[in-house]
Design goal:
mainly alpha, 54% helix, 239 residues, globular, two-stranded antiparallel ribbon
Length: 239
């Protein structure tokens, strides 16, 4: 039971960090927060994503390209143009690393108004840091795992971010449905999204913090964000 709680907790907290802080805040600026809460959620994202932490700055640049290019042939990671999921992951990783390491200058349209905390980005990107997280995951399983097959879950902890990206970017675009006209053959949403924290409902053409558009669609991250807004931790962009 402890292993199950740890696995589900890591899965959901990592996903929440991606959709709440990286996607809706860092990239798409759907709400605002002061510097204290920005740094709080920066650290929360670092801890919850662990060995697969993504820099909010580099993520924001690449994700803005994704929405602006709208799956054109120079899109950073459009599965319609890259049919092999492994090739898609490699291309996305290479573009992300170019911006993380400042090998490419972000275009003005993509490179402004994102959270920056370079020391955390540098520490998080060190191999020793990622291996420390891997070691902590292994140690937890060694101490609490009751059966050998539980250790098969460990690779998911190690590569949580890329696994989420594969589900959201690859599966959703090819096997989902559309709530709006994206002007391209890729899909933009799919309903089995509760374990994806609402991230699977995003649409390229919409920039609303609530991703739900149809009956029975549920966006748990929006519900949490609404609570944080009520508590004055975040402010919606129009507020």
């Amino acid at each position: 039971m402890i292993i199950l709680i740890f696995f589900v907790g890591h899965w959901l907290f990592s996903l929440f960090s991606q959709t709440f802080f990286l996607q809706r805040y860092s990239s798409r600026k759907m709400f605002k927060m002061n510097i204290f809460w920005e740094r709080f959620f920066y650290i929360f994202t670092f801890i919850s994503q662990g060995s697969s932490f993504l820099s909010p700055r580099a993520y924001a640049v690449v994700h803005r390209m994704h929405h602006d290019y709208n799956d054109a042939d120079h899109h950073p990671y459009a599965p319609f143009f890259i049919r092999n999921v492994w090739a898609l992951l490699i291309k996305t990783k290479n573009i992300y690393m170019d911006y993380l390491d400042f090998g490419l200058d972000a275009e003005i349209a993509f490179g402004q108004k994102y959270p920056k905390w370079y020391i955390i980005d540098r520490i998080a990107d060190l191999w020793v840091t990622r291996f420390v997280f891997v070691g902590l995951y292994i140690a937890f399983y060694v101490h609490f795992a009751a059966y050998w097959w539980m250790f098969l879950l460990l690779p998911i902890h190690f590569f949580m971010g890329p696994i989420h990206g594969t589900i959201i970017t690859w599966y959703r675009h090819q096997c989902g449905y559309c709530n709006c006209d994206n002007h391209n053959p890729n899909k933009s949403a799919f309903k089995p999204n509760l374990l994806i924290a609402g991230e699977s409902l995003q649409n390229n053409e919409l920039n609303e913090v609530n991703f739900t558009k149809q009956h029975l669609e549920i966006d748990p991250t929006y519900i949490i964000t609404k609570i944080l807004h009520t508590l004055h931790i975040v402010r919606f962009a129009e507020a």
